[in-house]
């Protein structure tokens, strides 16, 4: 048992992998935060999509009027979907990148820029900031993931 | 060759990792099931979104009337998107958690509660159950992922 | 330090894992490409969703008319969401599969068919090809992921 435990923690002893685990966890938590922000706006704007969610507002027409879209809710939802579209590739490619033997400093640079860019992207989307604020923060995160994918393919390519 | 094979299976010998692999595969299969349920409702409700999908119903107006949204189809699609928003963080953070050396019993507790909560969430969404059924099942899965993220960051933090 | 580096590259020395890393990176890059195609259609069709994205077209009504949905944009977005729904399970289950000790030739067969099917699916969605072109390419990718999940559960099952 203790030997197995040792084996499982060996992996996490690798510094690049620890950095990956730290930033991947942080950016996934940031993505999860979007669910809470959506719920906050749905409740404060009284804008729901499922009939069963408005049952506490009464029956019939009184409840039905809360089944509507709200611009703030839709904005958070777009930000959440954009997170899925960009953070999923980062988490997947980043894992392979962390296992491809990069220098710790190079890896940290990639992870820090990506996570910083995605946090900026969320603020740019939700405030919202004038363009090209959101566009640039999106592009920086995208470029970091491309750079990691290039390193992965250069290192491991087996087609 | 056999030495390489040995190396690759070593990893899977770790019990916590085996438990993670089991529950991650199950919950990803559950998420994939949503595609089949969507297809089932699209076909039985005759509610499609792509013109090429209605070509078998004939040409012109006859086919066009099946290009419509249906409440049951939209409900399954919302459940599917909610799965993506919650199961992706579980799979990502759960992998890091499994590598962070938790006790097997603690890890199993996390994995079982999460997967159970997401299965309940699907039933609550599709039946649908009155609230707070769906909300609670969502919150339980969310809390499990937060608990794993806390363990990961406590163990590996390298910023 | 050099010992740690060795440990991290050991893993990537496994041929099945190298094959997984190659195909996972390629199919995630393919998914990321959908963002660029969406942006291309939004700009050429002048169809935006965020008011701040149309500010460069002027103020008031002149800019507002570009806040609209466009069939081509929506089509790419549906393809992108379909990628998320199918590529996420492949990347997750594929990682576990690669660690479950399959034969290299069997693993390559799975990875190549999945990635080929998803590239065909994208062409079938965007051109669009008549059905069952898109349906079949979707089903092939789906079946490959099910086959990998079966191997994973057969090898590691620990409930």
From TrEMBL, chains A, B, C:
Signal sequence extent: none
The record's Gene3D superfamilies line, in alphabetical order, gives: Membrane associated eicosanoid/glutathione metabolism-like domain
Name used for this protein in its record: Microsomal glutathione S-transferase 1
Q: Which Pfam families match?
A: MAPEG
Instruction: State the EC number(s).
Output: 2.5.1.18
Q: What does this protein do?
A: Conjugation of reduced glutathione to a wide number of exogenous and endogenous hydrophobic electrophiles.
Which Gene Ontology molecular function entries are recorded, alphabetically? glutathione transferase activity
Q: Which gene encodes it?
A: Mgst1
Q: Which domain of life is it from?
A: Eukaryota
Instruction: Look up and give the membrane topology term.
Output: Multi-pass membrane protein
CC per GO annotation: endoplasmic reticulum membrane; mitochondrial outer membrane
Keywords from the UniProt entry: Acetylation, Endoplasmic reticulum, Membrane, Mitochondrion, Mitochondrion outer membrane, Transferase, Transmembrane, Transmembrane helix
Which InterPro entries does the record associate with it? MAPEG-like_dom_sf, Membr-assoc_MAPEG, MGST1-like
Instruction: Tell me which family the UniProt entry assigns to this protein.
Output: Belongs to the MAPEG family.
Task: State how it assembles.
Answer: Homotrimer; The trimer binds only one molecule of glutathione.
Reactions catalysed according to its record:
RX + glutathione = an S-substituted glutathione + a halide anion + H(+)
**Organism, as annotated:** Formicarius rufipectus
Show the stretches that span the lipid bilayer. 20-41, 84-101
Where in or outside the cell it occurs: the entry states: Endoplasmic reticulum membrane; Mitochondrion outer membrane
């Amino acid at each position: 048992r203790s030997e197995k435990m040792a084996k499982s923690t060996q992996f996490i002893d690798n510094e690049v992998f620890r950095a990956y685990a730290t930033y991947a966890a942080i950016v996934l938590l940031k993505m999860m935060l979007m669910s809470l922000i959506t719920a906050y706006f749905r409740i404060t704007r009284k804008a729901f999509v499922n009939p069963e969610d408005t049952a506490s507002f009464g029956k019939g027409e009184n409840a039905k009027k809360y089944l509507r879209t709200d611009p703030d809710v839709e904005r958070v939802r777009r930000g959440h979907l954009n997170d899925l579209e960009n953070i999923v590739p980062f988490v997947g490619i980043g894992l392979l990148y962390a296992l491809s033997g990069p220098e710790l400093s190079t890896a940290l640079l990639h992870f820090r820029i990506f996570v910083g860019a995605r946090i900026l992207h969320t603020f740019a989307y939700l405030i919202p900031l004038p363009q090209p604020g959101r566009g640039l923060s999106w592009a920086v995160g995208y470029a970091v993931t491309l750079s990691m994918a290039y390193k992965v393919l250069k290192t491991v390519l087996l087609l």
